[in-house]
Design goal:
five-stranded antiparallel beta sheet, 0% helix, 89 residues, mainly beta
Length: 89
């Protein structure tokens, strides 16, 4: 799971605020296009298509971002080799 590059259709979260687009740190989007040979990414942000608030899954913003502005979200457990011991206070 220790993937270092961002790929098409990765689910990502913003690591910065972009108030000019009404997007803020933590908002989740999907990489829909690789730009500049993989140095930048078109990320689409859409409303929820289910859950507590039923929405239509419509795109509300699509913006080009650099890798340092996003982080890939992982939905599977880490491999046992990459798990660090838990620290307790």
């Amino acid at each position: 799971m220790n993937k270092s590059r961002i790929e098409l259709l990765d689910v990502v979260a913003l690591t910065i605020d972009l108030p000019e687009y009404n997007l803020y740190r933590g908002q989740v989007g999907t990489v829909v296009e690789l730009l500049a040979g993989g140095a930048a990414f078109e990320v689409e942000f859409s409303d929820a298509s289910g859950g507590l608030r039923l929405r239509n899954g419509r795109t509300y913003e699509s913006v080009g971002l650099r890798s340092e502005q996003i982080m890939v979200l992982h939905f599977e457990p880490a491999s046992p080799d990459s798990v660090r011991p838990m620290v307790t206070a």
